[in-house]
Amino acid sequence: MLFFTYWFPDHHRARIVSGFMLALPIAVALGAPLSTGLMELNGLWGLAGWKWMYLVEAIPTVLIGVVVLFYVTDRPAQAKWLNPDERAWLTSSIESERRRVETFHGITVLRSFWNPKVLLLALNYFGIVTASLGMLIFLPQIIKQLGFSNMQVGWVTMIPYLCASVSMLTWGWISDRMGERRWNLACASAVSCAGLILAGLTVGTYWSLAGMTIAAIGFYGSKGPFWAMPPMFVTGMTAAATIAWINSLGNLGGFFGPSIVGWVRELTGSFAGGLYALAGFALMAAIVAALWLHIPRHAVVSEAAPVPAE
């Protein structure tokens, strides 16, 4: 997220973040049947199925990481594949935005840890992560209740996340087109809440799959508007610390979401109560965004430097 602030002006960031994070729902969609298939290799060359899954899915990641380390350019000023006018324009646009943000906000690294907007962003993110990972971990089991085989579960699991991929790109584009973050984030959070409620009301039927698809559309639709918000009031090292802090607090939801669903499932024998609990966290995220996440955009499109002619 910090890297994108070095390369893309404010009015592009929601769609850029959405394009980058498109990897998440696609990975879930393709990974479900792929992982199921790899698990079927159990015993091949003396390796357990889960070991095959770890090896086959990890090796490409390591190789791509090495390529990125040497291939990706750190800053526009170092980009030899841009002409001098393009480098100058992009560098001046980003620098101009940075100065405006620092003039109006000027938050230091230490102050960012208890800044109200940072904590509210973390609370919103906590709600979304809790709800999304709580659903993700138990989605195969919920789908399994519909009578599918293991491989069919893998294929059906693709449906919510393929829809989420379209939502992520569309919502990021809309947010940039509108020049608005807060209400797009609130609406996406509300959509995820509605989807989880529908899934809870109809658990055990195909309508629950529709509800979880709607929830996934909201979860991933929120990514672009959300991650475009921190650079609106922090820059440089403060932005790095802020993004890390929001991630650290928000990703605690990765523990609470699945734990809550599992605990309610054991207590009641149904996933419905757990889905309602997750809906409560998504609703909390929507309320936080709607009521308190007003962050003025000082790096507006009209103030940006003109794009160099071809």
Q: How would you portray this structure in words?
A:
The chain is mostly helical and 310 residues long. The chain has 15 helices and no strands. It has helices spanning 2-5, 13-21, 23-39, 49-71, 84-104, 109-112, 116-144, 150-156, 158-178, 182-201, 206-221, 223-227, 236-250, 253-268, 272-292. Helix 7 packs antiparallel against helix 8 (150-156), helix 7 (116-144) packs across helix 13 (236-250) and helix 14 packs antiparallel against helix 15 (272-292). The longest helix is centred in the middle third of the chain and has 29 residues, at 116-144. It starts with a helix and ends in an 18-residue tail after the last helix.
Task: Indicate the topology.
Blueprint: H1 2-5, H2 13-21, H3 23-39, H4 49-71, H5 84-104, H6 109-112, H7 116-144, H8 150-156, H9 158-178, H10 182-201, H11 206-221, H12 223-227, H13 236-250, H14 253-268, H15 272-292
Helix pairs in contact: 2-9, 3-4, 3-8, 3-9, 7-8, 7-11, 7-13, 7-14, 7-15, 9-11, 10-11, 10-15, 14-15
Rg over alpha carbons: 21 Å
Give the number of DSSP strands.
Answer: 0
Residue stretches low in confidence (pLDDT < 50, at least 5 long) are 301-305
The helix fraction, in percent, is over 70%
- Shape descriptor reads globular
Number of helices: 15
- In N-to-C order, the SSE pattern is HHHHHHHHHHHHHHH
Span of the ends, CA to CA: 29 Å
Can you summarize the main beta sheet?
none
